[in-house]
Records
---
Amino acid sequence: MATAAAQRTAGSEADGAPDPVDTTAYQHAFDAAVAADERIEPRDWMPDAYRATLVRQIAQHAHSEIIGMQPEANWITRAPSLRRKAILMAKVQDEAGHGLYLYSAAETLGTGRDELLDKLHSGRQKYSSIFNYPTLTWADVGAIGWLVDGAAITNQVPLCRCSYGPYARAMVRICKEESFHQRQGYELLLALSKGTPEQHAMAQDAVNRWWWPSLMMFGPPDDESQHSAQSMTWKIKRHSNDELRQRFVDICVPQAESLGLTLPDPELRWNEERGHHDFGPIDWTEFWEVLKGNGPCNEQRINQRRRAHDEGAWVREAAAAYAAKHTGSAGGTGHETGATRA
Ligand code: BYC
């Protein structure tokens, strides 16, 4: 391990919480570790604002994973074949797993899952704008896989190099699974695109509806992104929102051609000089409205999430009772130990 991290660890272990006089030294060690591309680990000293930013981003990401289960789960009972149903169930289960890794990563920063879920349920923390759109046809499952998971991978592969160790490590596994998700969506859309004229039209309609919201997933334009500059200095984010959005557009254009589908943007064209595709303006009013809670499905998604949480109370109680029995400790809240007695 390089010097900066060694110093930092030694300092925090020897002294416990740093006294105010020592903070500058810790700050220098932290800055040096980030500059040297070392990982910050849970027991290392870190600035309060770095911790708060990570909790905000990881929580939003975790919430997106579990809310993101809803639009696709909507189609499990109506999948057109056993094979498609098995694939879709596996994908939705993977998303629950991603939520779990991410809530665990947030816990390493001292913020428990209960607190984060409370914030989600009371609207104090966000989840991705993309999941406030409805899944109207079976082709939407394909469009989500291709575009939404594709955008997620583009955004998340650089997070595997995030400066905070537990988040970066969680992202490695998540990205591998997202890659399978993206491929299943692409393959599903290809089958529809090459199918009957009705199936082709259904695939095209889904792509038309999901394209622009997928571009919004990368967040506001750089000049309106309040957190990007600081997050990039800390190497939490490695690229700006606009850089990643451009990368995604450049990846999608040839893929759409192979699919035999078009992207719903008359201004989309290759710009030789820039070496990138130009694309039309994004409706940022729509994005901010969705963030304010006014998207087509915001209310439905959060109500369903609260209901699922309430209906899962008995599982949490049973798990706490089981843990208490096997560790010999009361474990959890009084409510939970009540369940043990019952
Ligand atoms: N939706 O300063 P900015 C997935 C908020 S994929 C809602 O640029 P930052 C999945 C932002 O939080 C989706 N809110 O922020 C895929 C901030 O508000 P607060 C999840 C958004 O953090 C398939 C404000 O706007 N992926 O999970 O530097 C199936 C200003 O933005 C959005 C991740 O979360 C949005 N699209 O950059 C199932 C990846 N964009 O917090 C599941 C990790 C921005 O101050 N996250 N906001 O109230 C990130 O990479 C970054 O957090 C973002 C935003 C690029 C999203």
Note: The chain is about 65% helix and 0% strand.
---
Amino acid sequence: MTESLLKPAFGGPVEGSSSDGAPVVVAIDGPAGSGKSSVSKAAAQRLGYGFLDTGAAYRALAWHALEHGADTSDATAVLEVFGDFDYAISLDTSDRWVRVGSADVTAAIREPRVTDAVSGVARVAPVRHAVNELFRRLVASAGLPGVVVEGRDITTVVFPDAAVRILLTAAPEVRAARRSKELTSQDAAAVAAALHKRDAADSTVVDFLTAAPGVEVVDSTHLDFEQTVDAVLSVVDSTMGARDGR
Ligand code: DC
């Protein structure tokens, strides 16, 4: 993996909101279909923070592996293609893109063939280690007051000291129904089966269904999108308020 493009799409530094000038990190974890990606992005917009979708890195690596004809269920093959994985992502909520080398893969990484392959690459421990380091560097060098970082094990492994840590959950049937609405080309039963399979595969690597101590749970089962964003922002507000002695 090269470092040259590992820069967020933001210009000069702005004053950080945390006491040491580093961006405030709002870490959001949760299973597939909990709405964490769209909710995190909307929360970042309302806070005036950047947004880091960490799953995009694993998806981009899966895309890269498929481009090379690598078997994504073979850890050795994944590590081999990881060697020249030249990844870049924007943290700007109004200008989002993901690149591998000169290829803009923003849309391609959402294709079902990539979704089907991604658990294989996300399971490779040395990949996770390197990618987690990359996330920390991206956030530290963002030059932003804060960044909402979303993805599996973000509240526990990647940013255990984040100012705000949230586990966004929803009942499995609600998550499957939301996913099938997003993917209009696939029927609900197939989506539910794929989601269940991916949860099971992912949960062998990271525990994303149980909140670690200090992590606030937001259950969106009975909330619509706006209510979920409000619930997340209210946790941010109360946690930051307590931290700042408000
Ligand atoms: O959130 P998503 O569907 O874009 O994530 C894609 C895959 O990457 C999914 O299998 C979970 C995995 N992932 C992970 O293991 N750790 C992360 N921090 C983010 C995503």
Note: The chain has a mean pLDDT of 86.
---
Amino acid sequence: MQELSHFIGGKRVAGKSGRFADVWNPATGEVQAKVPLASKDELDAAVAAAAEAQPRWGATNPQRRARVMMEFVRLINRDMEKLAEALSREHGKTLPDAKGDIQRGLEVVEFCIGAPHLLKGEFTDSAGPGIDMYSMRQPLGVVAGITPFNFPAMIPMWKMAPALACGNAFILKPSERDPSVPLMLAELLQEAGLPDGVLQVVNGDKEVVDAILDNRTVMAVGFVGSTPIAEYIYSRGCANGKRVQCFGGAKNHMIVMPDADMDQAADALVGAGYGAAGERCMAISVAVPVGDKTADALIEKLVPRIEKLKVGPYTDGNDVDYGPLVTPQAKERVLSLVQSGIDQGAELVVDGRNFNLQGYEQGFFVGPHLFDRVTTEMDIYRQEIFGPVLSQVRAGSYEDALRVAMDNEYGNGVAIFTRDGDTARDFAHRVNVGMIGVNVPIPVPLAYHTFGGWKKSGFGDLNQHGTDSFRFYTRTKTVTSRWPSGLKEGGEFYFRAMD
Ligand code: NAD
């Protein structure tokens, strides 16, 4: 059995705690590796080493730091196939989807090559007689990122690239379910020229997360994962005086207006609902057609498309639509939520419970499910299912549909499908959700915009990537400077306004 490691001081380091977690191959149902779960002492040592390495890295000029990012981009492209294979093997997603996961991370690294421009400060010449004022952005020191299983390449890159480009040292605590790609990325960064100790990958579970939150040297924590853990990390991190941003779970709606192109809407729903087996924070899990006629038409279009979906292991080629869930527990949870939907009176239009794949009977596959006549009181509506289950909530009018999305406690993404510009514009302005798609089902902003949800999908005041990430990972220092022209004056005892 393969034993994975941490990445500390520029090399792979075996775990010392004696505690391990299983890493599955979700397609076969076998445990393929063990990942060490670090202790508080291991974390504290990794932070102390990072704190030693950071001042030199922070003093390296931004252009040189950006060059490390440039080389990192080249190396990721060089190793794309290898990274995608490792990602699919541990996560279960298809190879094209694994490459998308890497690509969306890579694009943030590309954005970070602009660090010299993004870190430029502000300057006011002659703010007063002989007085100049300037603000600079300085790194925080040692910062940390705690990331989820569902994007094991993209989200670690969203966290570490801006943090490192800003001159910080970074502690990455990836998901214990698929830790191989983050370790490979750390090696590539080192090959790209990142000095030893500036990036430490410390694997683990709650014990190491708590150690990060309580470590006084760690100045900021960026988290992505489920909402209960996001709330916990946000409150404990803030209570310890850290800068914290946490991105949580989601329940994303797609409003389908009667004037929408139904084929386009059905295609979008199938891709956004079942892609990656529904294990995406931007997956559409609720369709909200306006009017019964629209709802019936949508079901008619959806059913044949769903029945055609090809579910299988990533090794079966590029025409597989989605793979298994990540763990046996995830499969069990999804199936029990499906049962609750049936028990609470939703209409199961497509039943994926008895899905079986010859040769992969032990894999964590779940067939696609479609529920109609779901109400907002049901558990399948209230909970984030994170599986291949699409629910249809029928709305009587546009205002009703808008209210469904607005009353939901999550606010990550939402989409509207319509041919009417006025409706689309009204929706985008009024809905209380962070990322909106107009005839676009998964509106994930590109690297140079920012990504973040509202309500229980996001905690903290800055988003991920884009310019916000450069704000999050730096702090502002403002200098007021005067070079007297020779005459010394006495002290002043009033709060001076600039003349
Ligand atoms: P998770 O919350 O179980 O785990 C996320 C991280 O927190 C992991 O590194 C894990 O080790 C750690 N963790 C787990 N339990 C902990 C505990 N009790 N105390 C401290 N740390 C703990 O999430 P997941 O299952 O890995 O990922 C799926 C979730 O992430 C979904 O809810 C999904 O919507 C969300 N997600 C959100 C975004 C976003 O940007 N909003 C993006 C991707 C995923």
Note: The domain at 252-438 is CATH 3.40.309.10 (Aldehyde Dehydrogenase; Chain A, domain 2).
